[in-house]
C-alpha cells in the first residue's frame, strides 16, 4: 500500500470516528429491512475541498458499508445511519458514493467537489469545439497556476503539446463529446469537450483537395480517416486494388480500409462535368514488414512531481500517446518525435500509457508513481491539555505546502485551522470540552502535495462535569 493510499485510509478512519464515535453517541439498532434502502434528502451534494457533508441513510438491513468511486476527490464513511463525505480535491466530474447494506442492496449519492476560492480558478478559450480529422486545435488557458497538465479521456482526440498556457489537441478519428481534462498545480480542474468531424462538403469553387498524403503506408486492417474539400461534391473513391485498399466517402470524410499487404493507387473524383480528380493520385503501401512498435521499457516508476523519457522505435511514425488512467497517476507526451516523456503526477499504479503509431499499432508502458518523502510536520506531535483549555492552542506547522486540508477525529471536542501564513495550526473547541475519561483527539493536516502530518491531543479528565 503506497503513502497516499495509507493517508486516504487513515483519513477514512478519522471520518468514522468523527461521524459516529463514542463522543457523539451510537444510535440503537433499528430493523428497517422492510423499507427500501435510500439516502435521505438529496441524491446529489456539492462540497469544496476539506468540507465535510453528512446525510442520513434509511431502510435496508444494517450494518451499512460505503465506498467512494474516486478517493482522490472525496472520502466516505458511514456510522450507524449517518453517511459522511469529506471533500479532498476539486474535480468537475461528479463521483459516486455507494452505500451497501447487509443484504448487498445498494443505493448511491452523487458528489461534486468544486474548486475552492483558495485554489483560485482558470478559464479556457473554448470549452466546446470541433476539429477535423488530422487537424490541430490550440486551447489557451487564462489564470490558474502553471505548469499545466492535460489528459484525453477518449481515443478520438490526442494531446499533441503543452507549451506554457497553450494546450494543442489533435483530431484522430470521427466522434463526439470527447473529454479533455486540464489541471493546474493546485488541483484546479477544467474540462473541454471535442467533436471530431469532417466538414459538410460544398461547392466552394476551389480545386479538389485532401489531407491525404501523396505517398503513405498503412498496416492491414487498420482503418484511417482523411478529409476532402473543394471541387463539386459528392465525391467518388476508387482503388486500383480493392483487396489491398478499400474505402468509402461519407460527406467530406474519406475512410480508408486496408486489407492484405500490397500496393494500391487511390483515385478521388468530384461530380463536375468533366470530373476533376485529386492530382497526383495518392499511392498507398499496405505493409507488414516494418519492425514492430517498441518502447525502451515496459514499466517504469518515478517519484511524484518528476519526469522520465522513454525511447520509441519501430512501427510507423508519427507516434501519439494515450493516457488511459481515470485518475491522473501519470501523463505521457511525445517529444523529439521518437521519445515518450512521462510526468509522474499522483501516487498510485501501475497504470497504462499507450503509444500508438500512424496505423494504430500500440505499445504499452505501465507506470507507477511513488510518493515524495513526507516533509510536513506538526510540533509538538503529542500534547495533553485540561478540560478547561484556553481559547486556542497554537501549534507549529513545519515544511508543508499551502493550501492545507485539516481533519479532526472529534470535531465536537476540537477543531483546527491553518493560519494565513501556513506556519501555525490553530486548535479550538466549540465549547469547553467535558469528557468522562482521558480522551484522545487526532488532528490531521494534508498539504498541497498530499503529504500528511498528525498531532495527538489528549484531553485530560479533571473530574465531574459542571
CATH topology-level fold name of the largest domain = Immunoglobulin-like
Strand order of the largest sheet: 1-3-6-5
Low-confidence stretches: 1-29
**Tally of alpha and pi helices:** 1
Estimate the mean pLDDT confidence. 81
Radius of gyration: 29 Å
Distance between the termini: 46 Å
- The CATH architecture designation of the largest domain is Sandwich
Number of domains: 4
Percent range for β-strand residues: over 45%
Q: Classify the helix fraction into a percent range.
A: under 10%
Characterization of the model:
The chain is built from one helix and 40 strands. It has four domains: 3-113, Sandwich (Immunoglobulin-like); 209-286, Immunoglobulin-like (Sandwich); 290-373, Sandwich (Immunoglobulin-like), CATH 2.60.40.1080; 377-460, Cadherins (Immunoglobulin-like, Sandwich), CATH 2.60.40.60. The chain is elongated, with a radius of gyration of 29 Å. By secondary structure, the chain is mainly beta. The protein has a four-stranded antiparallel sheet, covered by helices on one side. It has a four-stranded mixed sheet with strand order 2-8-7-4, with no helix packed on it. It has a four-stranded antiparallel sheet with strand order 9-11-14-13, with no helix packed on it.
Architecture blueprint of SSEs:
Blueprint: H1 3-20, E1 38-40, E2 44-47, E3 52-58, E4 65-68, E5 74-79, E6 82-87, E7 91-100, E8 106-113, E9 122-124, E10 128-131, E11 136-143, E12 149-152, E13 157-163, E14 166-171, E15 175-183, E16 189-196, E17 209-210, E18 215-218, E19 224-229, E20 236-239, E21 245-250, E22 253-258, E23 262-269, E24 283-286, E25 294-295, E26 299-303, E27 307-313, E28 320-323, E29 330-335, E30 339-344, E31 348-356, E32 362-370, E33 377-379, E34 382-386, E35 393-398, E36 405-408, E37 415-418, E38 424-428, E39 439-446, E40 452-460
Parallel strand pairs: 2-8, 10-16, 18-24, 26-32, 34-40
Antiparallel strand pairs: 1-3, 3-6, 4-7, 5-6, 7-8, 9-11, 11-14, 12-15, 13-14, 15-16, 17-19, 19-22, 20-23, 21-22, 23-24, 25-27, 27-30, 28-31, 29-30, 31-32, 33-35, 35-38, 36-39, 37-38, 39-40
Amino acid at each position: 500500500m503506497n503513502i497516499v493510499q495509507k493517508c486516504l485510509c487513515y483519513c477514512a478512519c478519522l471520518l468514522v470516528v468523527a461521524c459516529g464515535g463514542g463522543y457523539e453517541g451510537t444510535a440503537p439498532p433499528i430493523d428497517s429491512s422492510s423499507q427500501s434502502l435510500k439516502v435521505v434528502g438529496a441524491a446529489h451534494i456539492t462540497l469544496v475541498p476539506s468540507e465535510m457533508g453528512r446525510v442520513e441513510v434509511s431502510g435496508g438491513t444494517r450494518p451499512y458499508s460505503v465506498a467512494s468511486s474516486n478517493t482522490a476527490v472525496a472520502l466516505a464513511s458511514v456510522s450507524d445511519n449517518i453517511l459522511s463525505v469529506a471533500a479532498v480535491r476539486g474535480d468537475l466530474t461528479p463521483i459516486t458514493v455507494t452505500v451497501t447494506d447487509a443484504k448487498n442492496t445498494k443505493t448511491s449519492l452523487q458528489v461534486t467537489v468544486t474548486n475552492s476560492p483558495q485554489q483560485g480558478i482558470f478559464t479556457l478559450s473554448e470549452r466546446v469545439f470541433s476539429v477535423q480529422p488530422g487537424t490541430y486545435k490550440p486551447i489557451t488557458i487564462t489564470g490558474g497556476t502553471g505548469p499545466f497538465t492535460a489528459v484525453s479521456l477518449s481515443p478520438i482526440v490526442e494531446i499533441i503539446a503543452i507549451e506554457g498556457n497553450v494546450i494543442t489537441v489533435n483530431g484522430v478519428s470521427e466522434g463526439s463529446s470527447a473529454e479533455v481534462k486540464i489541471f493546474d498545480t493546485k488541483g484546479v480542474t477544467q474540462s473541454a469537450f471535442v467533436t471530431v468531424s469532417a466538414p459538410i462538403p460544398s461547392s466552394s469553387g476551389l480545386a479538389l483537395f485532401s489531407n491525404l498524403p501523396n505517398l503513405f503506408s498503412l498496416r492491414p486492417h487498420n482503418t484511417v480517416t482523411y478529409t476532402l474539400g473543394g471541387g463539386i461534391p459528392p465525391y467518388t473513391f476508387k482503388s486500383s486494388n480493392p483487396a489491398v485498399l478499400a474505402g468509402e466517402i461519407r460527406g467530406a470524410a474519406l475512410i480508408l480500409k486496408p486489407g492484405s499487404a500490397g500496393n494500391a493507387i487511390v483515385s478521388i473524383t468530384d461530380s463536375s462535368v468533366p470530373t476533376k480528380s485529386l492530382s497526383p493520385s495518392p499511392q498507398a503501401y499496405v505493409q507488414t514488414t516494418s519492425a514492430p512498435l517498441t518502447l525502451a521499457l515496459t514499466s517504469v516508476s518515478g517519484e511524484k512531481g518528476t519526469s522520465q523519457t522513454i525511447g520509441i522505435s519501430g512501427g510507423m511514425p508519427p507516434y501519439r500517446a494515450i493516457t488511459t488512467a481515470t485518475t491522473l497517476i501519470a501523463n505521457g507526451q511525445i517529444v523529439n518525435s521518437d521519445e515518450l516523456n512521462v510526468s509522474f503526477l499522483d501516487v498510485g499504479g501501475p497504470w497504462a500509457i499507450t503509444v500508438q503509431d500512424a496505423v494504430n499499432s500500440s505499445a504499452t508502458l505501465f507506470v507507477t508513481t511513488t510518493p515524495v518523502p513526507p516533509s510536513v510536520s506538526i510540533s509538538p506531535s503529542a500534547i495533553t491539555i485540561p478540560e478547561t483549555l484556553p481559547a486556542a492552542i497554537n501549534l507549529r506547522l513545519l515544511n508543508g505546502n499551502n493550501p492545507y486540508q485539516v481533519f479532526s477525529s472529534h470535531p465536537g471536542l476540537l477543531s483546527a485551522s491553518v493560519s494565513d501564513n501556513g506556519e501555525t495550526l490553530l486548535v479550538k473547541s466549540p465549547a469547553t470540552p467535558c469528557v468522562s475519561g482521558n480522551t484522545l483527539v487526532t488532528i490531521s493536516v494534508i498539504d498541497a502535495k498530499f503529504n500528511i502530518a498528525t498531532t495527538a491531543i489528549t484531553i485530560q479528565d479533571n473530574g465531574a462535569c459542571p
